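Folded chain entry —
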Amino acid sequence: MKYGDLTGQIAVVTGGGRGIGEAICRILAEYGATAVIADINPEMAESAAAALRQEGFIASSVPVDVGTPASITAMVERIMKKYGRIDILVNNAGVLDATPALEMTVEGWDRVVDIDMRGTHLCTQAVLPHMIQTKRGRIVNIASQAGQLGGFLAGINYTSAKGGVIAMTKAYARMAGPHNITVNAVSPGFISTDMTNDRSDNSEEIPLRRLGTALDTAKAVYFLASDLADYVTGATIDLNGGYYMR
């Protein structure tokens, strides 16, 4: 038996149009999955899907704003109509904010929490019933080291939202486990992406002496999405080069 093969599986990745999300879509497609790139920017999502198709992989795109419940409902309905099922959901869509806590506005708090935490919940809530029907599924949430350590450069809204994602992962894992559905999280540390390229390089503080990459994150997501992780649920993989050890 060949483990790790995702051939025939439908994998939905929110925020999949660029950065970590795009890397996740690529690695899942490379292992045989149909990559459904869901993004608030339809042009970017379709461009990423077209690039995969040009290389011979199976990919499509769908617009979604995870901060808007109706948009999530429409995304799931569209995917179900086209493919009939969803095997893998990667809740990757998110925004970063570094506003100091004492300067945080209600609007700034709500924007990040609504996208990073509530959006993860709403996407899971919308997809999970379809996975329950097929008695199988993989859900992977993208958390953050900030949610475990209290944040250094991230704002309290982002830190709180990502901490909530880790707790939510455990709660959904308990609920979904009896249906043969796993729910796990990946918690990246300092990852070099467009969203973080204005941060200082603190690689000297990291035991592996380098920043993480989008591909590093994608590899961990692939593991959790595959049958290599059949007996893993409610877990959070720390992806930080050894910066945070527990």
Summary: The chain has one domain: 10-239. The longest helix spans residues 106-134.
